[in-house]
Amino acid sequence: MIELDSAEKFISAYEKIHKQKVFRIPYTSKVGERKTILMCKKNNKWISLPYMSVGLIENKITDKRSAPFQLFESEEGNFISTGRKPWEVRDTVAHSQYIYSDKVITLLDIKNEENVFNLFHSDIRRKIRKSIKEGVVVEYGTSKKFVKLFHKAYSNRMKEIGVAVISKKEINRRINAGLTTIFIAKKDNKAIGAATLNDMLQGCYENEFFATLSSFNKYYTSYLLHYTMICFAKENNATTYSFGRSTRNGGVHTYKRHWKAKDYNLFWSYSEKRKNIRDNTLLIKIWNKLPQFIKNILGGIIARKVY
Fold first, then answer.
1. For residue 25, which phi and psi values (nearest 5 degrees)?
2. What pLDDT band is residue 292 in, cutting at 50, 70 and 90?
3. Closest CA to 98 of 89, 111, 107
4. CA-CA distance, 53 to 204, in Å (whole number)?
5. When you count CB atoms within 10 A of the terminal residue's CB, does the N or C end of the chain come out lower?
6. Does the pLDDT value for residue 307 go beyond 60?
7. Residue ranges of domains in the chain
8. Helix (H) or strand (E) holding 24
9. Element spanning 10, H or E
10. Rg of the chain over CA atoms, in angstroms?
């Protein structure tokens, strides 16, 4: 999990974005260290943290008398809670026998290279140069113009692949929280790709949403988009660039491997046996058969439910 000495700034931004109250849950590690795990109560479950790949630990002690329950780590690394509260902990190691582990997060270490272009192998560098030569440019900002361009490009791509589209309201919440920047790739002044980059604090920037129009992929739009975001992260003193999470060995994961970044397996551990909505093949089949105009209406709602 991510560790912060103080989580005040993070909690403020998270609650603005997701409209979820963050609770400080007392946590005692297997070596006796007393810290705090940040969690939200969602659908009668305690989760650290919804919408994030891994949870967050604050290096402070929380008064157990004001907390709804406590978490303790056993010698084997499993979590035990007081009060029989159902919980879900997201980490790069398992904390229970009940886990969902189909996802990975891909991280690129950028702290020891001043010129990030040198981090990539020759084929990546060639594609970045080719994209620039073909006239693709990347602009970034946080204004309403960027929100509009992002949503249009992102929606067009999600419609191509039948995925629920995040609403403009959700994007605006991220912008207003002050930790998100939008990146737009253009060709002949047409938006052909879009992405968001989040300041995750502690020197890490993470790409959350990403889309490029398939008809323009011959210009290697995705490579220039990621390269620009990596440069932005480096200029803002980041030590790590996160490509975000993806399904292990899926097409997106295979693409991320080209960057020679490091994969970390994600383990979402549960206090009890539970089904994950991502494994519901019937719901996926029903969604894929819906007319596009219904998907447009339900997209923002569905996107909020998959966390």
1. -105, 120
2. low
3. 89
4. 13
5. C
6. no
7. 2-96, 105-263+281-305
8. strand 23-28
9. helix 8-18
10. 20
Q: Find all residues with CB under 8 Å of 259, minimum gap 6, and list them.
A: 106, 108, 120, 124, 226, 243
* 151-187 tens-digit pLDDT: 988 888 877 776 777 888 889 999 999 999 999 999 9
Q: Rounded CA gap, 215 and 188, in Å?
A: 14
Task: Name the residue with tokens 């020679």.
Answer: 260
Domain 105-263+281-305 has CATH 3.40.630.30: yes
Q: What is the per-residue pLDDT across 93-151, written as a single tens digit (0 to 9) for each?
A: 999 999 999 999 999 999 988 899 999 999 999 999 999 999 999 999 999 999 999 99
- Residues near 19 by beta carbon (within 8 Å), at least 6 away in sequence: 173
